[in-house]
Specification:
There is one protein chain. The protein has four helices and two strands. By secondary structure, the protein is mainly α. It has one domain. Strands 1-2 form a two-stranded antiparallel ribbon. Helix 2 runs parallel beside helix 4 and helix 3 packs antiparallel against helix 4. The C terminus is likely disordered.
């Protein structure tokens, strides 16, 4: 199952690179295309990091990644359509393409939300498994636990660090 997920990440990165290149040469709807490019660059950077850390091996991520890949393929088609240079084509299709680009940009955000949900669900399952494996004393003990929560924001995503004191 991990191989299917890994393959999806590689495909998403390849599509992302194609969108990045195509967005730089569009003739119409430049602002929308550059916004899609910006999102895709961030998504691919995050996926590459997760892949390097072997965090993409969970089967729960397979479907959200395939959905994202499908949406990015559609985005690539639309961004490529914006490269048309013929003036009549530009005039006739600019408005419709703009609406489609906005829709695909929103769809990318929706797919990322599903991906985040899958990651949170996976983390919850893993934490639950770990907690179940920890030996608990017969009588629960109440302790004061001090911790420090540090929040940092990267260009791509927020990072939360919790330190037990």
């Amino acid at each position: 199952m991990a191989d299917l997920t890994l393959g999806s990440v590689e495909k998403i990165v390849q599509i992302g690179l194609a969108i990045k290149e195509a967005a730089d040469t569009v003739q119409q709807n430049k602002e929308e295309c550059l916004e899609i490019k910006k999102r895709v660059v961030r998504i691919t950077a995050i996926l590459k990091q997760l892949e390097e850390k072997k965090m993409m091996d969970d089967p729960m991520l397979k479907d959200p990644l395939q959905d994202l890949e499908e949406t990015l393929r559609h985005a690539l088609t639309l961004v490529t359509d914006c490269q048309e240079k013929h003036i009549v084509c530009l005039f006739c299709t600019a408005g419709d393409l703009s609406k489609q680009l906005r829709r695909v940009r929103e769809d990318i955000a929706d797919k990322m939300t599903l991906g985040v949900f899958a990651v949170v669900a996976t983390a919850t399952v893993n934490i639950t498994i770990i907690m179940e494996r920890i030996e608990c004393p017969a009588q629960p003990q109440v302790r004061n636990i001090n911790f420090c929560l540090i929040t940092t924001y990267d260009l791509a995503a927020p990072v939360f660090l919790i330190f037990l004191l």
